[in-house]
């Protein structure tokens, strides 16, 4: 399978009171590149947003990656099957909490309220590309996480400083 684009890039985006936020142009370009040309136009401008399995952030990816993501989850669930051979549903539950969301021509979409609450995203969302998906972080949660890199933390602080904001 050939990959048409990787999610590479980052940006601090403002989130409005209704939860609307724009996917950064670099990440949106990959979403578009990974969308099959024969897809119904109503489905073409969609992003999948899911809860991260281990961090208090969200992950985003294209429609085609859904199948790959499910196959990976299913393989892990099978590798950790119970004594009766039943799939480990806990793994599937942790990875399948996702929403398919439409975005407009400027990349704006609405983050569902539960996802905003769970990830603590309020005024800003920090997007960071990770190859086959991207993460969406609340700046304070990213800074507090022991699992993020110093570079990511410096980026968030830099972009907040540019906007005259402090954590």
Would you write up a description of this structure?
Helices cover 37% and strands 22% of the residues. The protein has 167 residues and is α+β, with helices and mostly antiparallel strands. A hairpin with a 4-residue loop joins strand 7 (124-129) and strand 8. The protein is globular, with a radius of gyration of 17 Å. The relative contact order is 0.22. The model has no long low-confidence stretch (mean pLDDT 91).
In short:
With 167 residues, the chain is α+β, with helices and mostly antiparallel strands. It has helices at 25-33, 41-44, 65-79, 89-96, 113-119, 139-144, 150-162; strands at 10-14, 20-22, 46-51, 58-61, 98-102, 108-110, 124-129, 134-137.
Cα-atom radius of gyration: 17 Å
Bulk shape = globular
The span between the termini is 43 Å
Helix and strand string, N-terminal first?
EEHHEEHHEEHEEHH
Q: How confident is the prediction overall: mean pLDDT?
A: 91
Trace the largest sheet across and list its strands: 1-7-8-4-3-5
Q: Helix amount, in percent?
A: 25-40%
Unreliable stretches covering 5 or more consecutive residues: none
Percentage beta strand:
15-25%
The number of E-state strands comes to: 8
The number of helical elements comes to: 7
Biggest beta sheet summary: 6 strands, antiparallel
Which structural class matches the secondary elements? alpha+beta
